[in-house]
Amino acid sequence: MTPSAEIVLLNGKFPVGMGNRTALAVAGGQVVAIGDDREIRRLATLKSTVLNCGGRTVIPGIVDAHCHLLATAAIGLRVDCRPAVTRDVAAIVRALRNSAASKDGWIRGHGYDDSPLGLGRHLNRHDLDRVATDRPVRVDHRSGHACALNSHALATVGIDRLTPDPPGGVIARDDYGEPTGLLLEMDDWLRDRARVSEDPSPGQMRQAVRDLGNRLLAYGITAVTDAGPSNGLERWRYFEETTADGTLPLRVTMMVGFDRLEEIQAAGLGYGATANGGALVLGNAKIMLTASTGQLRPDPAQLAEMVVYAHELGFPVAIHSVERDAVVAAALAIGDAPPVKAGYGSRVRDRIEHCAECPPDVLELVAQSGAMAVPNPGFLHYDGERYLSTVATDLLPHLYPVGALVARRIPTALGSDAPVIEPNPWASMAAALSRQSAGGADIGGMKAPSAAEALVLHSGQRRITPGMPADLAVVQPDPLMISSADLPNVRSAATIVAGRLVWRDVPLSQ
Ligand SMILES: [Zn+2]
User: Fold this and answer.
1) Predicted confidence band at 345 (pLDDT cuts at 50, 70, 90)?
2) How far apart are the CA of 322 and the centre of ligand 1, in A?
3) Calpha distance 117→136 (Å, rounded)
4) How much distance in Å is there from the Cα of 319 to the middle of ligand 1?
5) CATH number of 1-60+461-510
6) What is the CATH architecture assignment of 78-193?
Protein backbone atom coordinates (compact mmCIF):
# COMPACT_ATOMS: atom_id res chain seq x y z
CA MET A 1 0.00 0.00 0.00
CA THR A 2 1.28 3.46 -0.88
CA PRO A 3 1.80 5.54 2.28
CA SER A 4 0.12 8.91 2.62
CA ALA A 5 2.20 11.60 1.02
CA GLU A 6 4.26 14.26 2.79
CA ILE A 7 4.63 16.29 -0.41
CA VAL A 8 2.38 16.15 -3.46
CA LEU A 9 3.29 17.81 -6.76
CA LEU A 10 0.34 18.42 -9.09
CA ASN A 11 -0.05 19.92 -12.55
CA GLY A 12 3.58 19.36 -13.49
CA LYS A 13 5.36 18.39 -16.69
CA PHE A 14 7.79 15.49 -16.69
CA PRO A 15 10.83 14.76 -18.83
CA VAL A 16 10.41 12.83 -22.05
CA GLY A 17 9.80 9.12 -21.74
CA MET A 18 7.45 9.47 -18.78
CA GLY A 19 4.13 9.39 -20.61
CA ASN A 20 1.34 11.75 -19.63
CA ARG A 21 2.11 11.89 -15.96
CA THR A 22 1.44 15.20 -14.25
CA ALA A 23 1.83 14.47 -10.57
CA LEU A 24 3.90 12.66 -7.99
CA ALA A 25 3.90 11.94 -4.30
CA VAL A 26 6.80 11.97 -1.85
CA ALA A 27 7.04 10.18 1.49
CA GLY A 28 9.86 8.94 3.67
CA GLY A 29 12.43 10.71 1.55
CA GLN A 30 11.40 8.88 -1.61
CA VAL A 31 9.20 9.31 -4.62
CA VAL A 32 6.38 6.89 -3.78
CA ALA A 33 3.95 7.35 -6.65
CA ILE A 34 3.72 8.96 -10.07
CA GLY A 35 0.51 9.38 -12.00
CA ASP A 36 -2.12 11.91 -13.01
CA ASP A 37 -3.42 14.64 -10.71
CA ARG A 38 -6.56 12.71 -9.77
CA GLU A 39 -4.68 9.58 -8.64
CA ILE A 40 -1.98 11.41 -6.75
CA ARG A 41 -4.29 13.91 -5.05
CA ARG A 42 -5.87 10.97 -3.24
CA LEU A 43 -2.58 10.34 -1.43
CA ALA A 44 -2.61 13.80 0.15
CA THR A 45 -3.69 14.24 3.76
CA LEU A 46 -4.29 17.37 5.79
CA LYS A 47 -0.63 17.31 6.77
CA SER A 48 0.69 17.06 3.21
CA THR A 49 2.36 19.95 1.46
CA VAL A 50 0.55 20.23 -1.85
CA LEU A 51 2.27 22.18 -4.60
CA ASN A 52 0.63 23.17 -7.84
CA CYS A 53 3.50 23.26 -10.31
CA GLY A 54 1.53 25.48 -12.68
CA GLY A 55 2.69 23.46 -15.67
CA ARG A 56 6.34 23.84 -14.76
CA THR A 57 8.74 20.98 -15.44
CA VAL A 58 9.64 18.49 -12.72
CA ILE A 59 13.18 17.16 -13.13
CA PRO A 60 15.50 14.94 -11.12
CA GLY A 61 17.69 17.19 -8.95
CA ILE A 62 20.83 18.55 -10.59
CA VAL A 63 24.20 17.27 -9.37
CA ASP A 64 27.24 19.53 -9.54
CA ALA A 65 29.84 16.78 -9.85
CA HIS A 66 32.82 19.03 -9.14
CA CYS A 67 32.90 22.22 -7.14
CA HIS A 68 34.61 23.78 -4.15
CA LEU A 69 31.92 24.78 -1.69
CA LEU A 70 33.84 26.76 0.90
CA ALA A 71 35.97 28.59 -1.64
CA THR A 72 32.81 29.51 -3.55
CA ALA A 73 31.14 30.67 -0.36
CA ALA A 74 34.21 32.65 0.70
CA ILE A 75 34.19 34.59 -2.53
CA GLY A 76 31.14 36.43 -1.30
CA LEU A 77 33.41 37.79 1.43
CA ARG A 78 36.27 38.83 -0.87
CA VAL A 79 36.98 41.73 -3.16
CA ASP A 80 35.91 40.93 -6.70
CA CYS A 81 38.96 41.39 -8.94
CA ARG A 82 37.54 39.71 -12.03
CA PRO A 83 38.11 41.65 -15.27
CA ALA A 84 34.37 42.14 -15.71
CA VAL A 85 34.34 44.18 -12.49
CA THR A 86 37.86 45.62 -12.18
CA ARG A 87 39.28 46.25 -15.62
CA ASP A 88 42.89 47.17 -14.86
CA VAL A 89 45.48 47.12 -12.10
CA ALA A 90 44.49 50.59 -10.92
CA ALA A 91 40.87 49.47 -10.52
CA ILE A 92 41.96 46.41 -8.54
CA VAL A 93 44.10 48.54 -6.24
CA ARG A 94 41.18 50.95 -5.70
CA ALA A 95 38.72 48.15 -4.92
CA LEU A 96 41.11 46.54 -2.43
CA ARG A 97 41.82 49.89 -0.76
CA ASN A 98 38.12 50.56 -0.32
CA SER A 99 37.58 47.23 1.39
CA ALA A 100 40.65 47.80 3.56
CA ALA A 101 38.79 50.53 5.39
CA SER A 102 36.08 48.18 6.61
CA LYS A 103 37.98 45.16 7.87
CA ASP A 104 40.91 44.13 10.01
CA GLY A 105 43.69 41.75 9.14
CA TRP A 106 44.17 40.32 5.68
CA ILE A 107 42.76 42.04 2.65
CA ARG A 108 41.67 39.35 0.21
CA GLY A 109 40.71 39.63 -3.43
CA HIS A 110 39.90 36.98 -5.98
CA GLY A 111 39.52 36.43 -9.69
CA TYR A 112 42.23 38.53 -11.37
CA ASP A 113 43.11 37.37 -14.87
CA ASP A 114 46.60 37.60 -16.39
CA SER A 115 45.40 36.67 -19.91
CA PRO A 116 45.41 39.19 -22.77
CA LEU A 117 41.68 39.69 -22.19
CA GLY A 118 42.25 40.39 -18.50
CA LEU A 119 45.13 42.44 -17.15
CA GLY A 120 47.63 41.06 -19.64
CA ARG A 121 50.04 40.26 -16.81
CA HIS A 122 50.14 38.86 -13.31
CA LEU A 123 49.81 41.09 -10.29
CA ASN A 124 52.98 41.58 -8.23
CA ARG A 125 53.98 42.78 -4.78
CA HIS A 126 54.56 46.32 -6.01
CA ASP A 127 50.99 46.59 -7.32
CA LEU A 128 49.65 45.33 -4.02
CA ASP A 129 51.99 47.49 -1.92
CA ARG A 130 49.94 50.38 -3.33
CA VAL A 131 46.97 48.94 -1.44
CA ALA A 132 48.73 48.70 1.90
CA THR A 133 52.22 48.38 3.33
CA ASP A 134 51.18 47.81 6.95
CA ARG A 135 48.73 44.95 6.33
CA PRO A 136 48.88 41.71 4.35
CA VAL A 137 47.15 41.70 0.95
CA ARG A 138 46.47 38.62 -1.15
CA VAL A 139 44.69 38.34 -4.51
CA ASP A 140 43.92 34.93 -5.99
CA HIS A 141 44.13 34.23 -9.71
CA ARG A 142 40.90 33.24 -11.46
CA SER A 143 42.20 29.68 -11.92
CA GLY A 144 42.82 29.10 -8.23
CA HIS A 145 46.35 27.95 -9.10
CA ALA A 146 48.19 31.20 -8.42
CA CYS A 147 48.02 34.17 -6.10
CA ALA A 148 49.83 37.45 -5.58
CA LEU A 149 50.93 38.80 -2.21
CA ASN A 150 52.10 42.24 -1.16
CA SER A 151 55.41 42.72 0.65
CA HIS A 152 53.79 42.68 4.08
CA ALA A 153 52.03 39.38 3.30
CA LEU A 154 55.25 37.80 1.99
CA ALA A 155 56.95 38.75 5.26
CA THR A 156 53.98 37.50 7.29
CA VAL A 157 54.10 34.02 5.72
CA GLY A 158 57.89 33.95 5.86
CA ILE A 159 58.84 34.15 2.19
CA ASP A 160 62.06 35.96 1.25
CA ARG A 161 64.82 35.50 -1.33
CA LEU A 162 66.28 32.58 0.61
CA THR A 163 63.02 30.59 0.82
CA PRO A 164 63.23 27.51 -1.43
CA ASP A 165 60.25 26.55 -3.62
CA PRO A 166 58.11 24.10 -1.66
CA PRO A 167 57.33 20.70 -3.26
CA GLY A 168 54.83 21.25 -6.05
CA GLY A 169 54.91 25.03 -5.73
CA VAL A 170 56.81 27.90 -7.28
CA ILE A 171 57.81 31.25 -5.78
CA ALA A 172 58.19 33.52 -8.81
CA ARG A 173 61.38 35.62 -8.65
CA ASP A 174 62.79 38.58 -10.54
CA ASP A 175 66.21 38.75 -12.24
CA TYR A 176 67.81 39.43 -8.87
CA GLY A 177 66.23 36.43 -7.17
CA GLU A 178 63.78 38.59 -5.22
CA PRO A 179 60.23 37.10 -4.90
CA THR A 180 57.86 39.06 -7.16
CA GLY A 181 54.86 38.27 -4.95
CA LEU A 182 53.44 35.73 -7.42
CA LEU A 183 53.05 32.20 -6.00
CA LEU A 184 52.05 29.18 -8.12
CA GLU A 185 50.29 26.13 -6.67
CA MET A 186 50.97 27.26 -3.11
CA ASP A 187 47.47 27.30 -1.64
CA ASP A 188 48.08 24.36 0.68
CA TRP A 189 51.46 25.69 1.71
CA LEU A 190 49.94 29.03 2.62
CA ARG A 191 47.13 27.39 4.55
CA ASP A 192 48.98 24.58 6.30
CA ARG A 193 52.62 25.49 6.64
CA ALA A 194 52.45 29.23 6.95
CA ARG A 195 49.76 28.77 9.61
CA VAL A 196 48.48 32.24 9.14
CA SER A 197 44.91 32.88 10.07
CA GLU A 198 43.51 34.91 7.21
CA ASP A 199 40.06 33.43 6.79
CA PRO A 200 36.77 35.05 7.74
CA SER A 201 35.33 34.35 11.17
CA PRO A 202 33.41 31.09 11.61
CA GLY A 203 30.15 33.03 11.86
CA GLN A 204 30.79 34.98 8.66
CA MET A 205 31.70 31.75 6.92
CA ARG A 206 28.55 29.98 8.14
CA GLN A 207 26.40 32.74 6.70
CA ALA A 208 28.33 32.67 3.42
CA VAL A 209 27.84 28.89 3.19
CA ARG A 210 24.11 29.31 3.92
CA ASP A 211 23.82 31.91 1.15
CA LEU A 212 25.64 29.63 -1.26
CA GLY A 213 23.37 26.70 -0.39
CA ASN A 214 20.35 28.80 -1.35
CA ARG A 215 22.01 29.91 -4.57
CA LEU A 216 22.58 26.27 -5.53
CA LEU A 217 19.01 25.24 -4.65
CA ALA A 218 17.71 28.10 -6.80
CA TYR A 219 19.44 26.48 -9.77
CA GLY A 220 17.71 23.18 -8.94
CA ILE A 221 20.92 21.64 -7.58
CA THR A 222 20.25 18.98 -4.94
CA ALA A 223 23.71 17.39 -4.63
CA VAL A 224 27.31 18.49 -5.03
CA THR A 225 30.69 16.84 -4.96
CA ASP A 226 33.28 18.93 -3.17
CA ALA A 227 36.57 18.28 -4.94
CA GLY A 228 38.89 20.02 -2.48
CA PRO A 229 42.43 18.64 -2.85
CA SER A 230 43.14 19.20 0.84
CA ASN A 231 39.84 17.89 2.22
CA GLY A 232 40.52 15.92 5.37
CA LEU A 233 38.97 15.13 8.71
CA GLU A 234 38.44 18.75 9.73
CA ARG A 235 36.52 19.47 6.51
CA TRP A 236 34.50 16.27 6.97
CA ARG A 237 33.46 17.42 10.46
CA TYR A 238 32.52 20.83 9.06
CA PHE A 239 30.30 19.24 6.42
CA GLU A 240 28.85 16.90 9.06
CA GLU A 241 27.77 19.92 11.09
CA THR A 242 26.53 22.03 8.20
CA THR A 243 24.54 19.26 6.50
CA ALA A 244 22.97 18.37 9.87
CA ASP A 245 21.93 21.86 11.02
CA GLY A 246 20.49 22.98 7.68
CA THR A 247 23.30 25.40 6.80
CA LEU A 248 23.86 23.22 3.72
CA PRO A 249 20.41 21.81 2.88
CA LEU A 250 21.63 19.60 0.02
CA ARG A 251 23.61 16.40 -0.40
CA VAL A 252 27.38 16.66 -0.27
CA THR A 253 29.92 14.11 -1.42
CA MET A 254 33.32 15.07 -0.08
CA MET A 255 36.40 13.91 -1.94
CA VAL A 256 39.45 13.28 0.26
CA GLY A 257 42.75 14.96 -0.54
CA PHE A 258 45.30 12.25 -1.33
CA ASP A 259 47.55 13.52 1.47
CA ARG A 260 44.67 13.18 3.94
CA LEU A 261 43.82 9.53 3.28
CA GLU A 262 45.61 8.22 6.36
CA GLU A 263 44.07 10.89 8.56
CA ILE A 264 40.58 9.97 7.29
CA GLN A 265 41.19 6.26 7.70
CA ALA A 266 42.56 6.70 11.21
CA ALA A 267 39.17 8.24 12.07
CA GLY A 268 37.50 5.04 10.90
CA LEU A 269 36.16 6.53 7.68
CA GLY A 270 36.42 4.65 4.39
CA TYR A 271 35.23 5.29 0.86
CA GLY A 272 31.43 5.50 0.78
CA ALA A 273 31.11 6.33 4.48
CA THR A 274 27.99 8.37 5.18
CA ALA A 275 26.69 10.77 7.79
CA ASN A 276 23.30 12.38 8.49
CA GLY A 277 21.30 9.67 6.76
CA GLY A 278 23.26 9.90 3.53
CA ALA A 279 23.30 13.70 3.33
CA LEU A 280 27.08 13.48 3.48
CA VAL A 281 29.13 10.83 1.67
CA LEU A 282 32.87 10.25 1.51
CA GLY A 283 34.01 10.17 -2.11
CA ASN A 284 37.09 9.57 -4.25
CA ALA A 285 40.68 10.37 -3.33
CA LYS A 286 41.58 13.64 -5.02
CA ILE A 287 44.95 13.83 -6.73
CA MET A 288 46.24 17.09 -8.17
CA LEU A 289 48.15 16.60 -11.43
CA THR A 290 49.31 19.85 -12.93
CA ALA A 291 51.45 21.05 -15.78
CA SER A 292 50.97 24.73 -15.01
CA THR A 293 54.54 25.08 -13.74
CA GLY A 294 55.98 23.64 -16.97
CA GLN A 295 56.28 19.97 -16.09
CA LEU A 296 53.92 17.30 -14.84
CA ARG A 297 53.70 17.19 -11.08
CA PRO A 298 53.66 14.48 -9.80
CA ASP A 299 55.54 12.75 -12.62
CA PRO A 300 53.85 9.76 -14.32
CA ALA A 301 55.73 7.18 -12.22
CA GLN A 302 54.79 8.87 -8.93
CA LEU A 303 51.22 9.27 -10.15
CA ALA A 304 50.94 5.56 -10.92
CA GLU A 305 52.14 4.76 -7.38
CA MET A 306 49.60 7.13 -5.87
CA VAL A 307 46.70 5.53 -7.75
CA VAL A 308 47.80 2.05 -6.70
CA TYR A 309 48.14 3.22 -3.11
CA ALA A 310 44.67 4.81 -3.01
CA HIS A 311 43.15 1.68 -4.54
CA GLU A 312 44.84 -0.42 -1.86
CA LEU A 313 43.21 1.74 0.79
CA GLY A 314 39.86 1.15 -0.91
CA PHE A 315 39.51 4.57 -2.56
CA PRO A 316 38.91 5.18 -6.24
CA VAL A 317 40.78 8.29 -7.39
CA ALA A 318 39.75 11.58 -8.97
CA ILE A 319 42.67 13.07 -10.84
CA HIS A 320 42.75 16.80 -11.63
CA SER A 321 43.81 16.83 -15.29
CA VAL A 322 43.51 19.93 -17.43
CA GLU A 323 46.38 19.88 -19.92
CA ARG A 324 46.61 17.23 -22.63
CA ASP A 325 49.69 15.62 -21.05
CA ALA A 326 47.94 15.49 -17.70
CA VAL A 327 44.82 13.81 -19.14
CA VAL A 328 47.05 11.23 -20.87
CA ALA A 329 49.00 10.52 -17.68
CA ALA A 330 45.80 10.26 -15.63
CA ALA A 331 44.17 7.85 -18.09
CA LEU A 332 47.27 5.65 -18.22
CA ALA A 333 47.76 5.59 -14.45
CA ILE A 334 44.11 4.64 -13.89
CA GLY A 335 44.05 2.10 -16.72
CA ASP A 336 47.17 0.33 -15.43
CA ALA A 337 46.26 0.23 -11.73
CA PRO A 338 44.83 -2.91 -10.12
CA PRO A 339 41.18 -2.50 -9.12
CA VAL A 340 40.05 -0.80 -5.92
CA LYS A 341 40.15 -3.15 -2.93
CA ALA A 342 36.65 -2.92 -1.57
CA GLY A 343 33.23 -4.44 -1.64
CA TYR A 344 31.45 -1.63 -3.42
CA GLY A 345 31.20 -3.45 -6.77
CA SER A 346 30.32 -1.41 -9.80
CA ARG A 347 29.66 1.77 -7.81
CA VAL A 348 33.38 2.36 -7.55
CA ARG A 349 34.70 4.45 -10.38
CA ASP A 350 37.90 6.37 -10.84
CA ARG A 351 37.38 9.84 -12.27
CA ILE A 352 39.30 12.21 -14.50
CA GLU A 353 38.42 15.75 -13.44
CA HIS A 354 38.16 18.55 -16.03
CA CYS A 355 39.39 16.52 -19.03
CA ALA A 356 39.90 19.94 -20.60
CA GLU A 357 42.30 19.26 -23.48
CA CYS A 358 41.01 16.02 -24.88
CA PRO A 359 41.59 15.44 -28.64
CA PRO A 360 40.45 12.09 -30.13
CA ASP A 361 43.64 10.13 -29.37
CA VAL A 362 43.52 11.26 -25.73
CA LEU A 363 39.79 10.60 -25.52
CA GLU A 364 40.47 7.04 -26.65
CA LEU A 365 42.87 6.59 -23.71
CA VAL A 366 40.22 7.96 -21.37
CA ALA A 367 37.73 5.42 -22.78
CA GLN A 368 40.16 2.57 -22.28
CA SER A 369 40.96 3.62 -18.71
CA GLY A 370 37.37 2.89 -17.66
CA ALA A 371 37.31 6.16 -15.71
CA MET A 372 34.42 8.57 -15.55
CA ALA A 373 35.11 11.94 -17.17
CA VAL A 374 34.01 15.05 -15.29
CA PRO A 375 34.35 17.99 -17.69
CA ASN A 376 33.30 21.62 -17.08
CA PRO A 377 31.60 22.85 -20.25
CA GLY A 378 30.49 25.93 -18.31
CA PHE A 379 34.01 27.27 -18.93
CA LEU A 380 33.15 27.47 -22.64
CA HIS A 381 30.08 29.53 -21.75
CA TYR A 382 31.80 31.94 -19.37
CA ASP A 383 35.30 32.00 -20.90
CA GLY A 384 34.74 31.06 -24.56
CA GLU A 385 36.13 34.32 -25.93
CA ARG A 386 39.31 33.89 -23.92
CA TYR A 387 39.78 30.36 -25.25
CA LEU A 388 39.24 31.58 -28.82
CA SER A 389 42.10 34.04 -28.44
CA THR A 390 44.49 31.88 -26.39
CA VAL A 391 43.98 28.23 -27.42
CA ALA A 392 45.37 26.67 -30.63
CA THR A 393 42.65 26.46 -33.30
CA ASP A 394 42.99 22.71 -33.77
CA LEU A 395 42.54 22.11 -30.05
CA LEU A 396 39.40 24.27 -29.58
CA PRO A 397 36.86 21.62 -30.72
CA HIS A 398 38.37 19.19 -28.20
CA LEU A 399 38.11 21.41 -25.11
CA TYR A 400 35.74 19.90 -22.53
CA PRO A 401 34.41 17.63 -25.31
CA VAL A 402 31.12 16.54 -23.76
CA GLY A 403 29.52 15.48 -27.07
CA ALA A 404 32.54 13.36 -28.05
CA LEU A 405 32.69 11.75 -24.59
CA VAL A 406 29.02 10.79 -24.85
CA ALA A 407 29.44 9.53 -28.43
CA ARG A 408 32.29 7.27 -27.27
CA ARG A 409 30.02 6.08 -24.41
CA ILE A 410 32.42 7.26 -21.72
CA PRO A 411 30.57 7.70 -18.40
CA THR A 412 30.37 11.45 -17.99
CA ALA A 413 29.14 13.82 -15.29
CA LEU A 414 29.23 17.60 -15.48
CA GLY A 415 30.71 19.88 -12.84
CA SER A 416 31.08 23.65 -12.56
CA ASP A 417 34.44 23.86 -10.78
CA ALA A 418 33.02 26.87 -8.93
CA PRO A 419 34.43 29.23 -7.70
CA VAL A 420 36.35 29.40 -10.99
CA ILE A 421 33.01 30.13 -12.65
CA GLU A 422 29.46 30.64 -11.44
CA PRO A 423 27.92 27.26 -10.44
CA ASN A 424 25.10 27.60 -13.00
CA PRO A 425 24.44 24.06 -14.31
CA TRP A 426 22.16 25.46 -17.03
CA ALA A 427 25.04 27.45 -18.51
CA SER A 428 27.11 24.29 -18.50
CA MET A 429 24.34 22.33 -20.27
CA ALA A 430 23.89 25.19 -22.77
CA ALA A 431 27.57 25.11 -23.72
CA ALA A 432 27.57 21.31 -23.99
CA LEU A 433 24.65 21.62 -26.43
CA SER A 434 25.77 24.62 -28.44
CA ARG A 435 29.57 24.68 -28.11
CA GLN A 436 29.14 28.45 -27.84
CA SER A 437 30.22 31.13 -25.40
CA ALA A 438 27.69 33.30 -23.59
CA GLY A 439 28.34 35.94 -26.24
CA GLY A 440 27.46 33.48 -29.02
CA ALA A 441 31.00 32.78 -30.26
CA ASP A 442 31.42 29.31 -31.78
CA ILE A 443 34.06 27.14 -30.12
CA GLY A 444 33.42 24.21 -32.48
CA GLY A 445 33.40 20.53 -31.69
CA MET A 446 30.83 17.80 -31.21
CA LYS A 447 27.62 18.91 -29.53
CA ALA A 448 25.80 16.97 -26.84
CA PRO A 449 22.92 15.17 -28.59
CA SER A 450 19.96 16.85 -26.88
CA ALA A 451 18.86 18.92 -23.91
CA ALA A 452 17.37 15.76 -22.43
CA GLU A 453 20.75 14.06 -22.67
CA ALA A 454 22.54 17.09 -21.19
CA LEU A 455 20.10 16.92 -18.28
CA VAL A 456 20.95 13.25 -17.74
CA LEU A 457 24.66 14.17 -17.66
CA HIS A 458 23.95 16.81 -15.02
CA SER A 459 21.52 14.83 -12.88
CA GLY A 460 22.70 11.25 -13.26
CA GLN A 461 19.05 10.20 -13.77
CA ARG A 462 17.23 9.33 -16.95
CA ARG A 463 13.76 9.56 -15.45
CA ILE A 464 11.88 9.90 -12.21
CA THR A 465 10.69 6.56 -10.82
CA PRO A 466 8.93 5.40 -7.67
CA GLY A 467 11.48 4.28 -5.07
CA MET A 468 14.13 6.79 -6.03
CA PRO A 469 15.29 9.35 -3.46
CA ALA A 470 13.07 12.42 -3.70
CA ASP A 471 15.70 14.85 -5.00
CA LEU A 472 13.67 16.98 -7.38
CA ALA A 473 13.37 20.44 -8.83
CA VAL A 474 10.40 22.21 -10.37
CA VAL A 475 11.96 24.42 -13.03
CA GLN A 476 11.02 27.08 -15.55
CA PRO A 477 11.17 27.71 -18.42
CA ASP A 478 10.98 24.10 -19.63
CA PRO A 479 14.63 23.23 -20.34
CA LEU A 480 13.61 20.70 -22.97
CA MET A 481 11.56 23.17 -24.98
CA ILE A 482 13.80 26.26 -25.18
CA SER A 483 16.86 27.17 -27.23
CA SER A 484 20.30 26.60 -25.74
CA ALA A 485 20.75 30.40 -25.69
CA ASP A 486 17.90 30.64 -23.17
CA LEU A 487 18.96 27.62 -21.12
CA PRO A 488 21.25 29.55 -18.71
CA ASN A 489 18.14 31.39 -17.44
CA VAL A 490 16.37 28.28 -16.14
CA ARG A 491 15.69 28.48 -12.40
CA SER A 492 13.96 26.33 -9.85
CA ALA A 493 10.61 27.37 -8.39
CA ALA A 494 10.82 24.60 -5.80
CA THR A 495 13.63 22.25 -4.85
CA ILE A 496 13.18 19.06 -2.83
CA VAL A 497 16.11 17.24 -1.23
CA ALA A 498 15.64 13.83 0.38
CA GLY A 499 11.89 14.40 0.49
CA ARG A 500 12.06 17.81 2.14
CA LEU A 501 11.03 21.05 0.49
CA VAL A 502 14.14 23.15 1.05
CA TRP A 503 13.69 25.89 -1.52
CA ARG A 504 10.67 27.71 -2.81
CA ASP A 505 10.91 30.75 -5.02
CA VAL A 506 7.28 31.43 -5.91
CA PRO A 507 4.20 30.48 -3.94
CA LEU A 508 3.18 27.14 -5.40
CA SER A 509 0.00 26.05 -3.76
CA GLN A 510 -3.32 24.73 -4.71
ZN1 LIG B 1 38.38 21.90 -9.02
Assistant:
1) low
2) 10
3) 28
4) 10
5) 2.30.40.10
6) Roll (3.10)
